[in-house]
Design a protein that fits this description.
The chain is an alpha+beta fold and about 160 residues long. About 30% of the residues lie in helices and about 15% in strands. The protein is built from four helices and five strands, in the order ββαβαβαβα. The chain has helices at about 20-30, 85-100, 110-115, 130-140; strands spanning about 1-10, 15-20, 45, 100-105, 125. The protein has a three-stranded antiparallel beta sheet with strand order 2-1-3. The protein has a two-stranded parallel sheet with strand order 4-5. The longest helix is centred in the middle third of the chain and has 16 residues, at about 85-100. The chain is elongated.
C-alpha cells in the first residue's frame, strides 16, 4: 500500500491510499480518482516529503506524504465540519431519516410491499432495493423514492 498526498484542480488537498503506484496511475488515467472535498476528477499527486529518521532513531521509512509534516497553525477547520454545502444537506437528510423512519436494510422491497398490501402497519421506512425490486414496486403502484445516501454499513 502507498499513501499519496493529492490535490485537485480547485486546490483542495487530501490524502488517499492505493495498492501501488501503478494502481494510482491506472485509476487516474480512467478518471476514477476524485477529490474528497468537491468530487472533481482532475486530481494530481501533490508534493511529498520523504520521511527521514535520525541516525539514532528507528530505521528509515519509505517516502511519506507532506501531510505527515507538522500541521500549520491556521488549520482550515475541524475534520468533523462539513467541507461542502452538499455534505451539510446529506447530513441533514441522514439525521431526518434516523429520527423519523426505520432502516429495514435489504428487506426494503418486502417491507414496502407488505405495508402496501395491508399485511403490516404503515410507517416510514428506508432501506436498500435492487433496480429490479424498485421497478416492480413502482409497477405495482407502490410509491418509493431513491435517497442520495449510503446505507449505514457502507459509510465510514
Amino acid at each position: 500500500m502507498i499513501r499519496y498526498a493529492l490535490k485537485c484542480a480547485e486546490g483542495h488537498e487530501f490524502d488517499s491510499w492505493f495498492q501501488s503506484a501503478e494502481a494510482f496511475d491506472a485509476l487516474s488515467r480512467r478518471r476514477l480518482v476524485a477529490c474528497a472535498v468537491c468530487g472533481g476528477a482532475d486530481v494530481k499527486k501533490a508534493l511529498m516529503a520523504p520521511g527521514v529518521a535520525a541516525r539514532d532513531a528507528a530505521p528509515e521509512k519509505s517516502a511519506t506524504p507532506a501531510s505527515d509534516a507538522p500541521m500549520p497553525t491556521a488549520a482550515p477547520g475541524p475534520l468533523s465540519a462539513p467541507a461542502h454545502p452538499a455534505e451539510q444537506v446529506l447530513r441533514a437528510i441522514r439525521k431526518h431519516l434516523s429520527e423519523n423512519s426505520r432502516y429495514v436494510g435489504k428487506k426494503f422491497a418486502e417491507e414496502a410491499r407488505a405495508m402496501h398490501l395491508g399485511e403490516k402497519d404503515q410507517g416510514a421506512i428506508h432501506g436498500e432495493a435492487t433496480p429490479e425490486e424498485a421497478r416492480s414496486l413502482i409497477e405495482d403502484g407502490i410509491e418509493i423514492a431513491p435517497l442520495p445516501i449510503l446505507p449505514p454499513d457502507k459509510t465510514n
